[in-house]
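Exercise 4. Each item below gives a protein and its sequence. For each, produce the structure-token representation.

Item: 25S rRNA adenine-N(1) methyltransferase (Lachancea meyersii CBS 8951).
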Amino acid sequence: MLLRRRKTVTGKPVLQRKPTIKPDKARRVIRRFHLLINKRRVIAGKLKLQVADNDEARTKVLVKQKIKTLGLESHYREGWSASHPDTQLETDMLKIHETHQLDCLARILGYIMSEINERGGLQNYQIASTIGQDKNRGGDSSKILIKWFQAVRDPGHQYRALELGSLSAKNAISTSGTFKLVVRIDLNSNDPVNIQRQDFMERPIPENDSERFDLISCSLVLNFVPNPRLRGQMLMRLNSFLRQDVKSAYVFLVLPLPCVANSRYMTETRLCDIMAHLGYRTINQHKSHKIIYLLFERQADCISDKGAMKDDFSKKKCCEINQA
Ligand SMILES: C[S@@+](CC[C@H](N)C(=O)[O-])C[C@H]1O[C@@H](n2cnc3c(N)ncnc32)[C@H](O)[C@@H]1O
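Answer:
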């Protein structure tokens, strides 16, 4: 277990505070979780197994069924009950692309599944994900949104917001009074009463404007999406959730600064070009030491998920783009 709480002699926790975790450790936990998910995806491809990265309970059932069908239970159990970390299994996991033997795939899958489900992998990842909201780390990113939004909003209009990847119902977006309604969703809600557990990519497309929003907040979420194609799909999907019956609708996008400042494939300009191609104009931008904040306004000819990326925004090194 990553986090321990002190207990009284009766076994009750001494403190009722939220568990905390240091930033360095949080980064390591998040990196490890992403590695496990990526390697599991590779194994799933090889075993022709469907996994739901966003739904561990369902994935567990699907994995068990497949392993049983393939008669690989004993190998899977071996990996599941191995000690963590196991040097050999760690090495095998890193080389999973080269592996085709079913017994080996099942063993590593068991090893991965037990780390995610039994050894605190998912739980620690969820706690680590929340630390960006820590006051000492810049805190709630929606404070910047509210500051910007106050300048563009029409005081007579009743705004509705959709917050993707919501970790708290007490952030400025929910408490400032700027929005009449805030719908909060997250893949793994830590507050099911106020935050709906939902994958944005599976949220049903609204049928009318009463179900759409004036603003979508996508703060530190896009960087959690595992590959460029899905990231593009997430951006394209936004417009389907923005109200069509109003002139102005907005997307608030927040990313770790290295995603655009230290990436071979993405720069701030390229990101804004992609958004412009989709039909959004950048109206505010701010960079802190670690984070970039952007506010986009939808233009009349915005592309939704039914449209297509006409321009070539495939994964290319930025130096190749500059030479083209
Ligand atoms: C680092 S947290 C960011 C939280 C908060 N918005 C912030 O700005 O600090 C990222 C969250 O995005 C959520 N997330 C990632 N992909 C998502 C998706 N497709 N639908 C809903 N939530 C998603 C994750 O579950 C995680 O809780």
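Check: The mean pLDDT is 86.
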